[in-house]
Design a protein that fits this description.
disordered N terminus, mainly beta, 2 domains, 4 helices, Phosphorylase Kinase, domain 1, globular, about 15% helix
Length: about 325
Amino acid sequence: MKRGIAVLSLLLVVGNACAEGRQVSLDWLKTMAFAGHQTDYSGVFVYQYGNRVETSRITHLVEADGEYEKLECLDGPKREIIRHNGHVWEFHNHKMVRTSSQGRGKFPSLLPEQLSALSANYQASQVGVERVAGYDAQVILFQPRDNLRYAHKLWAHNASGLLLKASVLDDRKQPVEQYTFTQLQIGGIDRSWIKSTPSMAPQGRIHDESTPAAAGMPVNSGWVVDALPAGFRKTMEIQRPMRGRHAPVTQLVFSDGLSAISVFVEPDDGDEDDVNGLSSRGAMNLYHKVANGHLVTVVGEVPARTVMQVADSLRNNGAQ
């Protein structure tokens, strides 16, 4: 209750001044990051991109030993993913398979990074109150200060701060992709399913397909991006095995707090699919480029022009 009052009090400050409003928006983002990990909730959400619609059910609980999350795909083949802290299991071929940990959060736990740098890259403003899945939500717009990233529109539950809806907008302010709850219950969630989660299941019921190398080993590869958009900072540089690849792949990850760009570099093995090309799925753009005996793949939640700019400016400074 105290946190609900604190969150509601933020709304009273809106409208006093533009600069003050932007600061409140950053506070809201921090509140959403906290709520996504500290709130018990269960609901159905829809992910839309292009003409595709995917529906999932998510249940999230907080226990003394950490967070539990169950994600069920409601369309197509049965798929269920269970997360407990940093461990991930997937229901596959009638058995639970442990996979490598997943780093970056997904809806509604879109935990932002580098919050202090957001104001340098986005103009943040509160743009009203709307209803989502039966709850009042504060609407926050993050407008980029350049044309190398997308705008983000977020709907936060007034009382808890839980993210109820998230939309990525293109230059014409049209949705590129969107997540939204269509049904949601906050608090009072059934907890009995936790007893049957893989972390509490008897040994032998779980097949472990994760390996220590799957997450990669930190490296200093010497690969440098000269034309990285302002505000993006390197958060990771690793060498990792990838399915279908003959040799380990170098991966560099950059983030501006709301969006991420990954650069993959590997030797060009001459396969016929190793050619220049651009493809997209929702807000995610992917660009392949073959240059100087290497296959470069850039993937990012940024416009196509940005992933191409990053790929074209990649070079190796010789450091190892």
